[in-house]
Write a structure and sequence with these properties.
With 539 residues, the chain is α+β, with helices and mostly antiparallel strands. It is 50% helix and 22% strand. Helix 2 (9-35) runs antiparallel to helix 9, helix 11 (365-381) packs antiparallel against helix 12 and helix 12 crosses helix 13 (411-429).
Length: 539
């Protein structure tokens, strides 16, 4: 049968017709695609612009996230005294972006004015006196009446062009809080070089006066753009109605043609313009590559059809399909094996970290030392109470040393352990620690939570807050929906050292390991609150 196919004129005629049809279609499409090259170039340039502009807009917005994050905190502080008490926390929020290292603030009250400059070094925040240009900027902003003012200005200082972005708040006691970021634009450009390094376009930012805010050529930062971004004529609007583009010759690329896109970049108090230049050569190369691949596709398809006609009835096709299927199966099995191996390694590492954190929580010599000191004082003052103290202490350590292979306990067990632990703290702190308020539903008492979770949050509250007769600490445990909420009034101590947040990391890691991601904690108004999801109900 195969020999008959080779000898027949049908095979030759069919092959010639198929090859001729594909060749004609390929040439026709190639000719037609040439007419659409310009439109394709514009569309591809627009895609490159959209990617580049999105990256740059997101980066510039992230530089100001410290000012945005601190707004919610300031709104929760009732007066200037509360603001001043939380200034270390505000400084950390202000310089939260890893590339922003300098800031400043001013707290203006009736009696005095607090002026400070903040600098981030590694994980520390240093405060010192304001630079003259920072002080001048603050005075100018304070001279403008109103609340909630945002301002942005650029100043040429000795080392570079500096961007001062500030936000002003008026507190309930008529005090004024002014927060600002001092961004060295020349140093910032070093970071922007590493952003989207694979893109075939370059971007720069100019202010409303045509001054370069950022540019790949670092020497241009702080200088005026020769003609300004508004000097381009015959601009075409893009689909978003605020972006325009035009083909020009780029000075930066030594006269090469580029498609220049310009769009507003509105930040805190700033009306800047983002400009993205996409070289036409890069776009044209893509279009020509598409034409080349199209011709190759048609030619290779014609050859493949001829080959299939010749070998359709042979055993080679079956063997090829079997080998291909076997190879695909092998690759799928290999990929699945690698995935399972990676998951096992991550799980093993995660379990090890959970075990380590748990062991750290279980052994606390400092707590034992304080407990023994309190017991020593009770032996003479109240022997009966000292006997009860010893019993409570032994129950606490017996519970701590009990094995919990699944790292889970019932809420009732955890609550009983927390009460025993709180009794020991109450003996130590007396009237500085108000009675523990507990309001838990019967359904939650039968549920499960991570081992030592309630004790961990109580210990965390006592460790990080002032506990005194004048300012007593009040801790509450109550049911709320599917969570147990542990809350305490916020009166942070300033002398806490060596806090690695092991307790909170242990709880967060345990819930993540068990597939629950709704554990959360943080400052809410004047309280620090943690939400513990209640897991499966036993019995």
């Amino acid at each position: 049968m195969i020999s008959q196919i080779y000898r027949s004129g049908y095979f030759i005629i069919s092959g010639v017709l198929i090859f001729t049809c594909f060749a004609i279609i390929g040439v026709f499409i190639s000719v037609q695609s040439g007419k659409r090259t310009r439109q394709i170039s514009d569309d591809m340039a627009a895609k490159v612009y959209q990617l580049k502009s999105t990256v740059f807009k997101n980066e510039f917005a992230s530089f100001l996230k410290g000012l945005n994050n601190i707004a919610s905190v300031v709104s929760q502080l009732p007066n200037s005294a509360a603001v001043q008490q939380n200034l270390p926390f505000a400084e950390a929020l202000l310089l939260s972006h890893p590339q922003i290292n300098k800031g400043f603030y001013a707290l203006v009250r009736r009696s005095d004015t607090l002026l400070r400059a903040v600098q981030k070094q590694d994980s520390h925040y240093l405060t010192n006196s304001l630079q003259p240009y920072q002080l001048q900027n603050i005075r100018q902003l304070l001279a403008v009446p109103g609340t909630g003012n945002n301002a942005s200005t650029t100043l040429s200082i000795a080392d570079s062009l500096h961007w001062l972005a500030t936000t002003r708040y008026q507190l309930s006691d008529s005090s004024i809080l002014l927060l600002g970021l001092d961004i060295n634009l020349q140093q910032l450009q070093h970071y922007l070089w590493s952003v989207d390094t694979t893109g075939r376009a370059y971007a720069f930012v100019v202010d409303e006066h045509g001054t370069y805010i950022s540019h790949p050529d670092e020497k241009l930062i702080g200088r005026r753009m020769p003609a300004g971004v508004q000097a381009i004529t015959n601009k075409k609007p893009l689909g978003d109605s605020i972006t325009s583009y035009q083909t020009i010759n780029s000075t930066y690329l030594q006269g090469l043609p580029v498609v220049r896109f310009q769009t507003p970049l509105q930040l805190i108090g700033a009306q800047w313009t983002l400009v993205v230049d996409t070289p036409l050569l890069a776009v044209d190369e893509d279009v020509k590559a598409i034409e080349k691949y199209m011709l190759l596709l048609f030619a290779s398809t014609a050859i493949m059809i001829l080959a299939l006609i010749v070998w359709a009835q042979t055993k080679w096709q079956k063997e090829f399909m079997l080998r291909q299927q076997a190879e695909l199966t092998r690759q799928e099995l290999l990929a699945e094996k690698q995935t399972l191996s990676l998951m096992a390694e991550r799980q093993e590492k995660h379990n090890a970290l959970l075990q380590l954190n748990t062991l750290k929580d279980k052994v606390d010599p400092h707590f034992l030392f304080n407990s023994l000191s309190s017991l020593n004082a009770l032996i003479e003052q109240s022997p009966q109470l000292a006997q009860s103290f010893v019993m409570k202490l032994s129950r606490v350590y017996r519970y701590v040393l009990d094995a919990h292979p699944e790292e889970l306990s019932t809420v009732a067990e955890e609550l009983n352990f927390a009460n025993e632990y709180f009794f020991l703290l109450k003996i130590r702190f007396g009237q500085g620690l108000q009675p523990l308020t507990v309001q838990l539903s019967d359904e939650h008492l039968h549920g499960q939570i991570p081992f030592m979770s309630l004790q961990t949050l109580i210990e965390n509250a006592v460790k990080h807050n002032i506990v005194s007769k004048e300012t007593p600490l009040h801790i509450t445990i109550q049911s709320e929906g599917d969570h147990i909420v542990v809350s305490n009034n916020l009166q942070l101590r300033k002398d806490v050292k060596g806090s690695g947040k092991h307790g909170l990391d242990y709880l967060r890691g345990t819930y993540t390991y068990l597939g629950h991601h709704s554990f959360r904690c943080g400052v809410a108004g004047s309280h620090f609150t943690c939400y513990l999801p209640v897991l499966r109900v036993t019995g």
